[in-house]
Amino acid sequence: MKFKEFLKRKDIVFSFKRYFIDALGAMAQGLFASLLIGTIIKTIGTQFNIPVLESIGTVAQEAQGVAMAIAIGYALKCPPFVLFSLATVGLSACKLGGAGGPLAVLIITIISAEFGKAVSKETKIDLIVTPFVTIFIGVGLSMLFAGYIGIAASAVGNTIMWATELQPFFMGILVSVIIGIALTLPISSAAICAALSLTGLAGGAALAGCCAQMVGFAVMSYPENKVGGLFAQGIGTSMLQMGNIVKNPKIWIAPILTSAITGPIATCLFKLEMNGAPIASGMGTCGLVGQIGVYTGWVSNGVNITAMNWVSLLLISFVLPAIITPLIALPLRKIGWIKENDLKLDL
């Protein structure tokens, strides 16, 4: 009982929501505010020959471990000394985790943060004890396990990408549907893609699935939500529909089937690849980050960008989801599976 009271007093909550929804979502925001925005700034600098932007972008990219860890700590409601100490933890976990650094940062930061919270303000020398415990545990775990976590994450990501290259049709469906569903659920598809370093054809399939959900829900729900809903979901997030999905799961059928259609079109017909920052694979049309990610990938790989490249990106991202989803939803409305105002948002 005393231990439970201690955990409650320290706001240490062992739950799926706290670690895999709140923390994972925050990690994606940290990645966005460092690696992703850094990649965009650096690409602009490279394209327009502005060295200062290239330098700024590079620095932002290198800060990803720190940004992720502080974002996770914020989501876990860490006291100031713990939160600031996590900068060192994130730096070490990301650096030692290699290509799978984001997953190493997530796991090690959560453990370090909870230990830091446990000792916070428990002694008269909190100034020393709390940062020491947080950093000692975080860096120690990074030295012991970050490399292995990174290898495991990379292995899973590489297996998915290899399988997509080998079986682009079936894996195009699978990756598109799973990542698309993750985007609409209250978890972070962007963080999942980042943790697995999901790029290439698999990244293209993930992008297709996310766009199918966002644009699909936006257009399908236009009669109920009008222009506000179109933009809120189309360049915001389809997660806004989660409450309505809980009430009537059948409204999710059309976007999911759309992702199952556009995924293999992306991998087999257009061979659309996402070779920008892996986080962009799970962003869909949110702030057009997914599309910018594809473009930065073209630039970094020296792709000769043609009109067909742009056509395929526009079709997968916007046109096909906007056409296919309402068409699938039409018979569902007629048979009463989707009723009036089932897709209504409180905007």
CA-based gyration radius: 21 Å
What is the N-to-C succession of helices and strands?
HHHHHHHHHHHHHHH
**Spans with pLDDT under 50 lasting ≥5 residues?**
none
Shape: globular
Structural class: mainly alpha
Mean pLDDT across all amino acids: 94
The number of distinct helices, counting runs of at least 4 residues, comes to: 15
Helical amount: over 70%
Roughly what fraction of the amino acids lie in strands? under 5%
Termini separation: 44 Å
Keywords, separated by commas or semicolons:
15 helices; mainly alpha; single chain; 347 residues
Describe the structure in brief:
This protein is mostly helical and 347 residues long.
Architecture blueprint of SSEs:
Blueprint: H1 2-9, H2 16-47, H3 51-62, H4 64-75, H5 80-97, H6 101-119, H7 126-166, H8 168-184, H9 189-195, H10 200-220, H11 222-234, H12 242-247, H13 253-269, H14 289-300, H15 307-334
General description of the model:
The protein is built from 15 helices and no strands. The protein is an all-alpha fold. Helix 2 crosses helix 14, helix 8 crosses helix 10 and helix 10 packs antiparallel against helix 11. The longest helix is centred in the middle third of the chain and has 41 residues. The mean pLDDT is 94.
